[in-house]
């Protein structure tokens, strides 16, 4: 079994039916309602995401995003561990590609970048109390 398959198996074992409903809800923009109803297990969910090109051995950004907005830091941490140890992709390397892969994140690209010195608003110190 490949490390990628092992990752998906481990993630599946930690996703309950209730979790699955929450995950499907988090990606309802990308999974049509009739398709969503047919997905009854986390393995089927991963399979659908792979067929829809949202998940691959070297493309985990989408599920990272879904786990993050679904408040599943345990699953997110496991995916990040896989990405950094198996794929050798750091968080810094990933940020630009992540923004191009997740449609809803594209609109935030300008917000995420660091502001230049000219863009930083300098605040005056608070007035002294008398």
From TrEMBL:
SMART domains referenced in this protein's UniProt entry, alphabetically: DED (SM00031)
For the DED domain, which residue ranges apply? 3-81
State a single Pfam family of this protein.
DED
Q: Where is the signal peptide?
A: none
Q: What is this protein called?
A: Astrocytic phosphoprotein PEA-15
Q: Which InterPro entries match?
A: DEATH-like_dom_sf (IPR011029), DED_dom (IPR001875), PEA15_DED (IPR029546)
The subcellular location is: Cytoplasm
Its predominant location is cytoplasm
Q: Which UniProt keywords apply?
A: Apoptosis, Cytoplasm, Phosphoprotein, Sugar transport, Transport
SUPFAM superfamilies to which the protein is assigned, alphabetical: DEATH domain
> What species was this sequence derived from?
Huso huso
CDD domains tied to this protein: DED_PEA15
Q: Does the keyword Transport apply?
A: yes
């Amino acid at each position: 079994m490949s490390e990628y398959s092992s990752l998906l198996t481990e993630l599946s074992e930690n996703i309950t039916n209730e979790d699955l409903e929450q995950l499907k809800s988090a990606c309802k923009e990308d999974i049509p309602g009739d398709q969503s109803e047919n997905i009854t297990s986390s393995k089927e969910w991963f399979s659908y995401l792979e067929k829809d090109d949202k998940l691959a051995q070297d493309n985990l950004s989408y599920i990272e995003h879904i786990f993050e907005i679904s408040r599943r830091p345990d699953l997110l941490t496991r995916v990040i561990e896989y990405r950094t140890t198996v794929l050798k992709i750091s968080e810094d390397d990933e940020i630009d590609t992540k923004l191009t892969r997740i449609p809803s994140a594209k609109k935030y690209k300008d917000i995420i970048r660091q502001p230049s010195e000219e863009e930083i608003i300098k605040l005056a110190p608070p007035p002294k109390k008398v």
